[in-house]
Input
Amino acid sequence: MSLVRNIENQIKKVLEQAAIEAQEAGALTFAALPDYVLEVPREKVHGDFAANIAMLLAKEAKMAPRKIAEIIVQHIHTQHTWIDKIEIAGPGFINFYLNHTWLYEVLPLVIEQGDYYGRSEFGAGKKVQVEFVSANPTGVLHMGNARGAALGDSLAGVLEAAGFDVSREFYINDAGNQIEKFGQSLEARYLQLLGHEVPFPEDGYHGQDIIDTMQTLIDEKGDKYLTMDEALRRELLVKYALEVKIDNIRKTLEEFGVYYDVWFSEQTLHDSGEVAKTIATLKNDGYIYEKEGALWFQTTKFGDEKDEVVVRGNGIPTYFAADIAYHKNKFQRGFERVINIWGADHHGHVARMKGAMEALGYDPEQLTVILMQLVRLFRGGEILRMSKRTGTYVTLNELMEEVGRDAARYFFVMRSPDSQMDFDLDLAKSQSADNPVFYVQYAHARICSILRQAEEMGYELPQVSLEECHVLSHPAEITLIRKIADLPDEIISAAENLAPHRMTTYAHDLASLFHGFYTNCRVLTDEPELRHARLLLTKATGICIKNVLHLIGVSAPERM
RNA sequence: GCGCCCAUAGCUCAGCUGGAUAGAGUGACAGACUUCGAAUCUGGAGGUCGCAGGUUCGAAUCCUGCUGGGCGCGCCA
Output
């Protein structure tokens, strides 16, 4: 339980007790306590916490909210609490003003917990899976994948910090139509590179990377596939190229700071018969019918607009069929919650996927799909298309080269998944110092610099007692400590709302408060007590910044 | 035509399950370094929260309709 939660509980307790006492004394009438909110007011003058309970009771108690507030306040006992003062304001808010010394406890706590400060047991070890990127293995990673990677990994990090048992997973679409086309494309390039004039498939993969991959193969293994049976040749070329491609994707993601627990192959679902078994189960339960030679799944039963093919007329299951089997497999692995991050262009798939889970007897609520709006790339004021077919995309590798990993990750995480992103490459390149990530990192570097100098001057990082913290009374100090105290709850809130972008907001606020503190309060002063306490505060801030940045995969440099 | 997402300061975006006077960054303007990092700080300027209704003590937030933009509606994935 965080310090802040403790305080909130204390206030709620005395507040609710007061309301009940008033009721028992006959001063107020209501059946049950309303679902009120205790929140931190936006305006400082409104106190440290505010409750809206009086307004919510107004109708039932048939009394003016301010009058109700007055009655409740009369019954509040503030002995043995941190409450200094209570005021009634506005339409009937009850505002609590606290003795701010309650905050000091957080500083030794941060130092003691170090890298762990901010983490909590909120998730109680529940198994959660986050599946993200799952890019087509026939190509390289583009900007959409980059956003998904930054978002998914940060979300996983936030969930982990909030106490969930998180597994990061990449689903490899190594089966189906696209692999057929991939094989045809590879074969055509292979033959062309060896001097044979063969046509390139119209809907094949035109990217340069396919040519490069085949050139490498030729350099390594020569022309031994020329005389082979065509089907076998394509199979071997695909096997080789997929391995190379997936390995590249893995390496690129690792450079981006993203590591997966599981790389899950679609092909294994076909090989193990899970796809066929899943279709059979659905058929048995009457969700599947035959029409025009194909098998259709009645997704309309679950609110979809039209039914969906699961097995084509040629007997080959569709991607959708494999995906149902895949999600069934996820739940069979015991995840209490499954989170997918998909591009907005897949949104039509969400309802039928949930419907399929329901048909299989799972609770569709356990599956959450985060739809991420697409990234539009601008260069020279013009939109770049991200099609894999044309080969004119900008890759994640190029992005990292141009703006750096930290800036790229921070930039992607900063925005809510719902917002469309225009990524201006020229801007990112030419004015990268404008990126807020530097602001936060600068605060951390500054902190490290102060701590280094303190060390050089022979000032020990002291074991500071709570009493010594009381010298911290400047408003800049108090607001900074308050922010530090908030970290565990901020992380929980980001986890609950699946909103990792809140962490960048927090990081920026924290950095800003530190810069303000730095400007107003000299850390390395000659007064030992004050210096000790401020060094402690400085160090605690540094720990928070570092922990938050690491959560979202951004480094916290000690020098810049 | 149907479905999903979005519309907040000149620009890019926050705004936690409905709360009090809607916030940052950036751009422009005016200031602050003989002392811990000026990649910083301090000011003011900038808003019919797309439009119109509705629910509520109270709406940027919830409901309905409309306008404008993105995406989707395949025996592709």
Summary: The longest strand of chain A covers residues 165-172. Chain A is about 50% helix and 15% strand. Chain A has a mean pLDDT of 91. Residues 407 and 437 of chain A are 6 Å apart (CA to CA).
